[in-house]
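Justification of resources, computational component.

The compute hours requested in this renewal are based largely on the per-chain cost of generating structure records like the one below. Each record pairs the submitted sequence with a full C-alpha cell output. That output is archived, and it is also reused by downstream analysis tasks.
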Amino acid sequence: LVLKDYPALSIAAIGMCAVFAWHTSKKWLYIVIAAVIMAFAVAIKFSAGVLLPILFIGIFIENFISYRNGKQISAFWPALTFFGLVSVLLIAFAYQFIGFSNLYMLVSPHLAATSLSSIKQDPFSVQILPVLPLFLLALISAYYGVIAKKNTLMLYPAVWLLLGFSLLFNYQPLFTHHFFVIILPALILSASGIGYAAEDLWPALRKGAAGPTSKLLAMIVLVGAFATVAFSIPRLSVSYSPTPWKVSEMDVSSRKRKII
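The structure output for this chain reads:
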C-alpha cells in the first residue's frame, strides 16, 4: 500500500505532461490522454488526486483566456471534459476492480492512523531538514522558469509543491512515502531550472550573450544543484519516522488495531 505512492504520483506527472502538450497544441486528444492517465494514477493511490484540481483549474484558466480573446468557442468544455472523463473512469474502475462496498476498506486505515495520539514524531519543519536544499532549489527554479523565462507551465509543479506543503504541514503521522507528494514536484522544478541554467550559461560563457540577471540565476541554480546532490540526495533514503513503532504498542482500540 505504501509503495503505491511512487508509481501513482509518477504516472500523475505523466498526465501533467499530457496537459502541457494540450497547452501547446490545443488538441483535444491530449485532454483525453491526460484524463485516462490521471484516472489510472488515482486508481492506484488516492494521493495522486492532489494533481486533479490543479490540472482542472489550469485547463479552465488557459481556455477561458483563449475564449476571451476569441480563439475558442467555449470557455468550459476542455476542463469539463477532463473532469468528466476522470470521474467516469474512476467510477468504472471502482465498480469493476474494487466494488463500491469495499471502498471504505481503502480509506479506513488512513482515518485510523490520523486518530492515533501515541506516535511521537518531530514536527514537519524538522523532518524536512534533510532535503531542504532540494526545496530551496525548486523554489528558485520556479522563479527562474515562471518569471524570468515566462514559462507559465511551470506553475503546475509549483502549485503542486505548495499544495503538498499545505497538506502535509499539520498532517500526522508522517512517514517517508508521504514526502514523495512534495519531493516529485520539487525534482521536476529543479530539473527544469538546471535546464534553463545550462541554456543560459553555456552561450554566455562562449559569447557573453545572456544578461547579468540570467547569469546570476543560472549560477545560483547550478550551485544549488551541486548542494542538493551533495547534501540532500544521500539523505532521501533516510526514514522520516525517527522512532519506530509497532501496532501492538499503540494505545488504540482493538478495532482500530485490526484496521491498521
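The chain has eleven helices and no strands. The CA atoms of residues 34 and 215 lie 36 Å apart.
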